[in-house]
Amino acid sequence: MGTRGETAQVATSRARGVDRDVELMTRVASRYYLEGMTQEAVARSLRLSRPKVGRLLDRARTVGIVEITVHVPRDLGLKVEAALVAAFGLDHVLLVNDQTDESGQRASVARAAAAFLKRQLSDGDVVALGMGRNVGAVPDFIGTPPLRAATFVSAIGGSPLVETGVNPNEICRRLAEAFAGSAEVLYAPAYAETPAVRDAFINHDDVRDVLERARRATVALIGIGNARDDSAVVSMGCFSVSEMRRLRDRGAVGDILGSFFDADGRAVVDGIGDRVVAIGRADLEAIPFVVAICSERDKGDAILGALRSGMVNVLVTNLSTARTVLELSGRS
To answer: What are the DSSP calls for 120-145, one per residue?
Structure first.
């Protein structure tokens, strides 16, 4: 076992190694993207192999040194937005340009949702919040907002396996801090083990009060889940792969706050809903602005079901995903 000094020396060496990697990625990316050099020319100028230059460019995109944006003509985006509004009776559609990587796409969608919140919120508003990576990314892009005496409320419980950044309670706190508002968090799991345990949570004074507050929200910011074996709720251990497959057999394509639906937006009930600690479908339908934010390109069927369900009236996504939804609906 090394001494503390030896450990510090190793850590410093590793840090310097990371710094050198970042510097090299930046040099390669600058010469390729900004100076217009070919990969062969970059390789020769830096005495690297051509394959290594390709790998460094890939890593530069992955870690965020390089962000590639495809700017779609605004007129094209407006046509897709108008088609979605007409097809599903939405109040607002916010479409962003397509990005080449998942993290960049999530950031673009979250930025648009953050801008909507900044425009929409007034003093005294209540915002009900779901969980997930998309919703969890929104606080990062609030920037310097006008201060709002708004209340941010968890609309669904969490899970011990949920990452801090995507837990609804943490999202509440971060948004409340950004707007100088207040947060009301829900100390309960997203899914209870049995309906009886769920009822015990729902009837607890603190849990009941928070959920009632969420039902009276003026805005809800939620994500759209899918119904696949690798879905977030399965990863969190809320229920098993076999339960998810049973839901799919009944037609489920996605969920919002634990309320599963099929491609036509109809509720899929298979005992799962009896275990969720969250506000329900009817509660969402009564909230004036329900903002669904989704950046994943493979959730077209889930978004379509969500829009047909009547739970959503504001959609924030990217252009190609929006076009996929229209194609699936037969409105393209």
So the answer is: H--TT-EEEE--SHHHHHGGGG--SP
| pLDDT tens digits, 216-258 | 999 999 999 998 887 777 776 677 788 888 888 999 999 999 8
The tokens describing 141, both together, are 């892009």
DSSP state of 222: E
**CATH class for domain 74-329?**
alpha beta
Residue 48's SS3 state is coil
Distance CA 332, CA 322 (A): 10
- What order do you get walking across the sheet with 289-293 strand by strand? 92-96, 314-318, 289-293, 219-223, 126-129, 151-154, 182-184
Higher pLDDT, 112 or 75: 112
CA distances from 275 to 61, 189, 257, 278 (A): 41, 10, 12, 9
- CATH architecture for segment(s) 4-62: Orthogonal Bundle (1.10)
pTM of the entire predicted model: 0.75
Distance CA 247, CA 270 (A): 7
* Whether pLDDT at 275 is above 90: no
The C-alpha atoms of residue 70 and residue 323 are separated, in whole angstroms, by 16
List every span in the chain annotated with CATH 1.10.10. Answer: 4-62
